[in-house]
Write a structure and sequence with these properties.
By secondary structure, the protein is of the alpha+beta class. The chain contains seven helices and eight strands; from the N terminus they run H-H-H-E-E-E-E-H-H-E-E-E-E-H-H. Strands 1, 2, 3, 4, 5, 6, 7 and 8 form an eight-stranded antiparallel sheet that branches. Strand 7 and strand 8 form a beta hairpin.
């Protein structure tokens, strides 16, 4: 899952520059789209619908963030970040991306990244459920495990320290560290995530 992690981190590093509508902004955009469509102003209708979608996706991001775990005792955590990847032209990978950094008691940084609403993510189900297929695809060192009540895959070693969880059909949760000393911390945070709550929001 190393290349998946790189893709996710690349997405979350982008600046989300789109203007996010508030709840009333969403309904205004939908009303404007309906009026424009009725007047056969299709380009304006499309623009207004996209504006409404950005606002709706931001609401989903906010709901996902609510299911991220608080920092355990002795830990600290950064403010969570969320991005509507589809608004950035990266929706082929995931429509919604949410991440949060945690600092373990020893100072290690553990990152949780959630990527949701993408047909592409469904292709990883075979790798998460079958280490042999993962090895054939060049994903060495992967072992089956479980986290937050779901099947998961650990890939520890050779500079990769990832716990990958796919609790739904198009939702991928990756808990990442940087060294072998982070493994227990990765597992601890992975088991604190409300995976079922996240899936209920986005699927």
């Amino acid at each position: 899952m190393r290349y998946v992690r790189i893709a996710i981190i690349g997405l979350t590093a982008l600046v989300f520059a789109a203007t996010v509508a508030q709840a009333d902004g969403v309904t205004d955009a939908m009303d404007n789209a309906q009026d424009a469509y009725g007047s056969e102003e299709y380009k304006e209708a499309s623009t207004q619908l996209q504006r409404a979608l950005v606002g709706v996706n931001q609401k989903l991001i906010d709901m996902i963030i609510e299911y991220l775990p608080a920092a355990p005792s002795g830990w600290t955590a950064e403010d969570p970040e969320g991005m509507d990847a589809s608004a950035m032209g990266a929706g082929f990978f995931a429509s919604l991306v949410v991440s949060r950094d945690y600092q373990a008691p020893n100072g290690s940084s553990i990152e949780v990244t959630i990527a949701a609403n993408s047909p592409l993510l469904a292709t990883y189900t075979m790798f998460l459920s079958n280490p042999m297929m993962a090895a054939m695809a060049g994903m060495s060192g992967m072992e089956q495990t479980s986290a937050c009540g779901n099947d998961a895959m650990e890939q520890f070693g050779d500079g990769t320290y990832d716990l990958s969880i796919m609790p739904g059909n198009t939702t991928l949760i990756v808990v990442s560290g940087n060294t072998e000393d982070d493994i227990d911390y990765i597992r601890q945070i992975g088991n604190l995530i409300d995976c079922e709550g996240i899936v209920a929001v986005v699927e």
